[in-house]
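quick one, 189 residues, struct below
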Amino acid sequence: GNLLQGDLGRSFALNRPVLDEVMERFSATLILAGAALLLCSVFGLLAGIVSAVRQFGWADRIITLFVLIGISTPSFFLGLMLILGFAVNLRWFPATGFTPISVSPWDWLRSVILPSVALGLSSSAAIARQVRSAMVGVLQQDYIRAARAQGLSSRRVIVRHALTNAMVPVVAVLSFQITVLLGGALIVE
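---
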């Protein structure tokens, strides 16, 4: 009955309400998921566009290799490798902990980078794969050939015509990735 009213009880270890403990830590989870979403959206879109525009070229092959690695690598394993490389060996980032942005923006950024990269790589790869697939299909359409025949710049054709029409299936994948990032943030944290 208490659970249905939002009362999760008291923590045995801290003797505080459990709901307060959860909400205190949930903000860090949202920040981590938001940072990973920003990274995966930007890098996924860029990689997918470049891969589609340079279809079957060396850039497409390299991006496809990284997408395959990104999809195949679990985020917790990548997180451990990033900690080993950048926190333990190079000492560029902290290995654990979270610093609120109100305390120190620089330390906050340092504490968010590694987990957001570990969390966002797989989603970035999934978005890049979807963007490439959608863009390849759109770039073969007649209206793209007509836009090029009108003398529009390649950049305008890609951004204005191809990307806007290719974004429909990408938005569906992106919305799914938000839930994946929130669930994965709990593991990566």
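The helical segments are 18-53, 58-72, 75-89, 105-139, 142-149, 154-188.
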